[in-house]
Each structure stands twice: as structure tokens, then as C-alpha cells.
Amino acid sequence: MQKQFKLITALIFVFGLIIVINNSTFRMPGNQQNYEPIQPIDFSHRLHAGEMEVPCQYCHYGASQSRHAGIPATSVCMNCHKYVSATRNDLRLEEEQAAAEDREMRPLTSLEIIKIYSAMGYDTQGNPLKDKKGKSVEWVKVHNVPDFVFFSHKPHITAGVDCADCHGDVASMERIKQTENLSMGWCLDCHRKDHESLEAAPERTQLLLDCATCHY
Ligand code: HEC
Ligand code: HEC
Ligand code: HEC
Ligand code: HEC
Ligand code: HEC
């Protein structure tokens, strides 16, 4: 009786595992489609990459050279935020108020920009504080593939795959969101499609579907 019970549980477990692995849209923990966490600074891609058209690789310069696209250091933000301490809108409002009250304009730094300055070890006006060291901003990571999967940006960017094919229309996002499911089936679907356009090089098309290409 004991033995039979163990056998049945083992069989259920094995069948469960087969179902899970066969369903190629199954996802490992840590990989969540539509994940859109609140970030420590209210940074907007819509404003920077969309409206202001700052190129993706101005900030994510690792993408064409390495495995990771990378998250820019705060010093990259300072290229502009050394001079931009608040939005044009807030500056205009302060200007109007100062005129109405017949006084000088006060220096204006928005709460979100103060977070950049403080990460740099600067005061609220953006001036270095002698005894303060900078620390990096703890951005929340959105996209994750498990450790047993090898993914690198470089071959994709080199082959001309667009950021948007894998990350959606980031330039219209106020806050970053994972638009794709990043499952194995998702990777393979595109690698199979690529296979059709690469008919001329059968050894490459085989490589793109080989287990060892993505698994150590
Ligand atoms: C193009 C890349 C790619 C190839 C080729 C590939 N895999 Fe995967 N595989 C992945 C990714 C990505 C995941 C993780 C998906 C997730 O996070 O849920 C994964 C997950 C898995 C898992 C864990 C369960 C699951 O389905 O998520 C197993 C088992 C697996 N792969 C086996 C294989 C085998 C066997 C082959 C060869 C027939 C293969 N893989 C080929 C990308 C690939
Ligand atoms: C001015 C700098 C800047 C520009 C330009 C920029 N990004 Fe980002 N990006 C960031 C910062 C900072 C983060 C981390 C905070 C966040 O998630 O919003 C980030 C996060 C991301 C993430 C999520 C990373 C993760 O944790 O998984 C993706 C994907 C991304 N950016 C893609 C893009 C794409 C695509 C473009 C161009 C359309 C772009 N970015 C333009 C600064 C930038
Ligand atoms: C073929 C799909 C694909 C393309 C194309 C792609 N990414 Fe990614 N990106 C991913 C995956 C998958 C991850 C998660 C990687 C991990 O966990 O190691 C990721 C992670 C990121 C991250 C988080 C930090 C990092 O590097 O791990 C950023 C930022 C990012 N991508 C930006 C970009 C930008 C900018 C482009 C275009 C220049 C781009 N990506 C093109 C699939 C892609
Ligand atoms: C190419 C120049 C440039 C870079 C690089 C840049 N920004 Fe900006 N950012 C601006 C400008 C200009 C504005 C103001 C837009 C407006 O007037 O509405 C702004 C606005 C902002 C705001 C909104 C401020 C508020 O008061 O609401 C935040 C937050 C912000 N940026 C964060 C960042 C972060 C974080 C980085 C680095 C990852 C960064 N920016 C990099 C030019 C830049
Ligand atoms: C939108 C299409 C697309 C998606 C999605 C995609 N890939 Fe790719 N992948 C490509 C293309 C195109 C190449 C380059 C083919 C070439 O150079 O022959 C490539 C190449 C690769 C390579 C390099 C192969 C080699 O050794 O030359 C790896 C590794 C890889 N992909 C892993 C992944 C993984 C893991 C995922 C999912 C997390 C993924 N890819 C999702 C299109 C895609």
C-alpha cells in the first residue's frame, strides 16, 4: 500500500514535469510578463527616448558590444541634469509667480532630480558636497532570464534585431514594462523565423535551434 502510493505520487510528478516542459510558454519564477515595478526615480522613457529622442544606446551602450545592454550610471544623467534641475513647466510657473510677487526667481530643483544629485553626493543645487561619496541608484531589474540560459544582446544587435522586437515600444512607456513572456518558446519562434530567411546557411539555422546555443 505504502509502495503503491509512492509510485503513484512519483508518476504524477513525472507527468506534471513533462506537461510543464512540453508547454513551451511555461515560465521560470522571476520571469513575469507585464511586470512593471515602481522605480526609485520616476524616470520616463517616453520623455527621454520618445519626446526628446535620446537614442537608446546613448544610455544602453553595452547592447552592441556585450551580453548586457547595461543600466547607465548616474553620471550619464548628469550630462544633462547638471543644467536641467526641473521641468520647463515648473520653471515657467516659478517665473510667473516670482513676477506676480515682484521678487527674484528662486532656484528650483524637483524632488526627482534631487534624488539624482543625492546619488551623486551633491547638494540640492547640484554642487558636490566635500564629505559625501556617491552611491548608485538601486533600479529594480525588470527582465530576467534564468542562470541556466545564455542570452547576449550583441549577436542580436549585430544581426539588426530591433530593441522593440523584444522590449516593445519603450519610447512610449512612462514606466518600463516587460511586454514579452521571455519563454523558451518565444526565443525559438523567432529563431525559427530567422531560419527561413537564412535558408542559405543551414549550419547557422541549426545552431540557432541547438540546445547548447542557449543552455550551458
Ligand atoms: C534560443 C534559445 C533556446 C534554445 C535553442 C533552447 N532553449 Fe531551453 N530555454 C530557453 C529559455 C530562455 C528558457 C527559460 C524560460 C523561462 O524563463 O521561463 C529555457 C528553459 C528550458 C527548460 C526549463 C523548463 C522550461 O520550459 O522553461 C528546459 C528543460 C529547457 N529549456 C530545455 C531545452 C532543450 C532540451 C533544448 C534543445 C532541444 C532547448 N532548451 C533549447 C532558451 C532556449
Ligand atoms: C537617458 C537614458 C536612457 C535612454 C535614452 C533609454 N534608457 Fe532604457 N533605461 C534607462 C534607465 C535609467 C533604466 C532603469 C530604470 C527604468 O527601468 O526605468 C532603463 C531601463 C530600461 C529597460 C529595462 C531594464 C530591465 O531592468 O530589465 C529596457 C528594456 C530599456 N531601458 C530599453 C530602452 C530602449 C529600447 C530605449 C530606446 C527606445 C531606451 N531604453 C532609452 C535609461 C535610458
Ligand atoms: C532578442 C531580444 C532582445 C533584443 C533585440 C534586445 N533585448 Fe534587451 N533584453 C533581452 C532579454 C532576454 C533581457 C534579459 C537578459 C538577462 O536577464 O540577462 C534583456 C535585458 C535588457 C536590459 C537590462 C540590463 C541588461 O542588459 O541585462 C536592458 C537595459 C535592455 N535589455 C535594453 C535593450 C536595448 C536598449 C536594446 C536595443 C539596443 C535591446 N535591449 C535589445 C532581450 C532583448
Ligand atoms: C539628453 C539630456 C538628458 C539626459 C541624458 C537625461 N535627462 Fe532627464 N530630463 C532632461 C530634460 C531636458 C528634462 C526636462 C523635460 C521637461 O522640461 O519637461 C528631463 C526630465 C527628467 C525628469 C523629470 C523631472 C521632474 O521634475 O519631473 C527625471 C526624473 C529625469 N529627467 C531623470 C533622468 C535620469 C534618471 C537620467 C539618467 C538615467 C536622465 N534623466 C538623463 C534631459 C535629460
Ligand atoms: C526577434 C527575434 C529573436 C528573438 C526573440 C530571440 N532571438 Fe536570439 N537571435 C536572433 C537572431 C536574428 C540572431 C543572429 C543570427 C545570426 O547571426 O545568424 C540570434 C542569435 C542568438 C544567439 C547567438 C547564436 C550564435 O552562437 O551565433 C544566441 C545565444 C541567442 N540568439 C539566444 C537567444 C535567447 C536565449 C533568446 C530568448 C531569451 C533569443 N535569442 C530570442 C533573433 C532572435
Radius of gyration: 24 Å
Mean pLDDT comes to 88
The small-molecule ligands in this entry are: heme C
Q: Determine the strand fraction and express it as a percent band.
A: under 5%
Summary keywords:
0% strand, 216 residues, elongated
Would you kindly provide a written description of the structure presented here, covering whatever features stand out?
It contains eleven helices and no strands. The chain is mainly α and 216 residues long. It has a domain at 25-39 and 140-214. The chain is elongated. It binds heme C (5 copies). Residues 41-43, 47-48, 54, 59, 72, 76-77, 79-81, 84, 86-89, 110, 112-113, 116 line the site of one heme C.
Secondary structure layout plus pairing:
Layout lengths: L1 H21 L22 H7 L4 H4 L14 H8 L6 H13 L10 H10 L32 H6 L4 H5 L16 H14 L4 H8 L1 H4 L2
The structure holds heme C (5 copies).
A few lines on this structure:
This protein is 46% helix and 0% strand. The chain is an all-alpha fold.
